Amino acid sequence: MGPRPEDWRRGVRRWGCRPAALAPLAVAIVLGLDVQAARAQVMVGEPDQYVSPQHFALEFRFGPYKPDIDSEFSGPNARHPYRDFFGPNSRLMSQVEVDYQVLHHVGSLGVGFAAGYFNETGNNPYGDGSGNLSADTSTLRLIPLSLSAVYRFDLMWERWKIPLVPYAKLGFDYVIWTINDGNGDIPEPDVGGKGQGGTWGWHAAAGLSFVLNILDEASARQFDSESGINRTHVFFEWGHWDVSGLGASGKLHVGDDTWTGGMLFEF
C-alpha cells in the first residue's frame, strides 16, 4: 500500500511547511523551466516571427540612357544632332522612387513617384565650318519626374519563400531639360534657339527582383525589428519611355528604351 494523504500532510508539518507556502516555490520552478526552454530555443536558432507593418517602398536605380532627340528627324538625309554632338554612346541615368502601397492582396499595388538626373557634355565645334572641336563645351541636363502605378507579385515569397518577385509599372512622365552653351549660360529664344523647357510623356516597364532576405532570414528579421525594413531586393528592369509630348508638336524628344538595375527597400 502506498502512502496515504494524511502521511503526506504529516511529512509537510514535520519539516515546518504548509501546503499554501509551497505555491511561490511552484511558480518559481515553472518560471525557471520557461526561462530554460526559452534559452534552449535561442540556442537551437529558432527564428523570431516578428514582422513590422509594410506600407512603402524605396528604390534606387541606375542604368544607361540616350535621349531619342534624333527621332524627330527622318528621311535619307536626316540630321542627327544628338549623335553628331554628343556621340553614339549612352550615359548614366540615376533615379530615386518612393512608392505608397495602397493594397496588399495577391501581391501589392502602389502609387510611385520618381525623380532622376541625367547629364551629358560635348565639345563645341569652331564657327569656321571646319568641323574641328574647340575646348568649349555645351551640356544637356535632364530631370525626369514620373508618377506610376506599380504592381508587385510577391505572393510566391509570402507563401512559399520563393525569392523572385516579378513586377510591372505604368505611368506618366514630365522631363525638365536644359541646354547650356559654351559659357555655361542658357540660350535665349532669340539667340541660338530655346535652351530649356519640359516634355510630357508616358512609360511602361517590367522587372524582376530577388529578395535578399532569403540569404539570412534571421538577420533580416532582426533588421526589420530594429529599422522597420521588411524586405531588401536587388532588381533588373526593362522599360519604354515615350517622352515626346503626348502628341503635341514642337517638343524635344527625350525618351529611350533601356534597362535599369538597383536596390529596393520595403518598409
How do you describe this structure in short?
The chain is α+β, with helices and mostly antiparallel strands and about 270 residues long. It contains five helices and eight strands. It has two domains: about 5-45; about 55-265, Porin (Beta Barrel), CATH 2.40.160.
Descriptive labels:
single chain; 267 residues; alpha+beta; Porin; eight-stranded antiparallel beta barrel; elongated; disordered N terminus
Could you give the topology of this structure?
Elements: H1 5-14, H2 23-43, E1 56-65, H3 81-86, E2 91-104, E3 108-125, E4 133-152, H4 155-160, E5 164-180, E6 196-211, H5 217-227, E7 231-242, E8 256-266
How is this structure best described in words?
The chain has an eight-stranded antiparallel β-barrel with strand order 1-2-3-4-5-6-7-8. The chain has five helices and eight strands. The chain has two domains: 39 residues; 211 residues, Porin (Beta Barrel). The N terminus is likely disordered. A hairpin with a 7-residue loop joins strand 3 and strand 4. The protein is an alpha+beta fold. Helix content is 20%, strand content 44%. The protein is elongated.
Mean pLDDT: 82
The strand line-up of the biggest sheet is 1-2-3-4-5-6-7-8
Fold-level CATH name of the largest domain: Porin
The radius of gyration over CA amounts to: 33 Å
What is the C-level CATH assignment of the largest domain?
A: Mainly Beta
Q: How would the global form be characterised?
A: elongated
Give the N-terminus to C-terminus distance in angstroms.
67 Å
Note the main sheet: 8 strands, antiparallel, barrel
Count of helices?
5
- The tally of beta strands, per DSSP, is 8
Structural class: alpha+beta
Q: Helicity level, as a percent range?
A: 10-25%
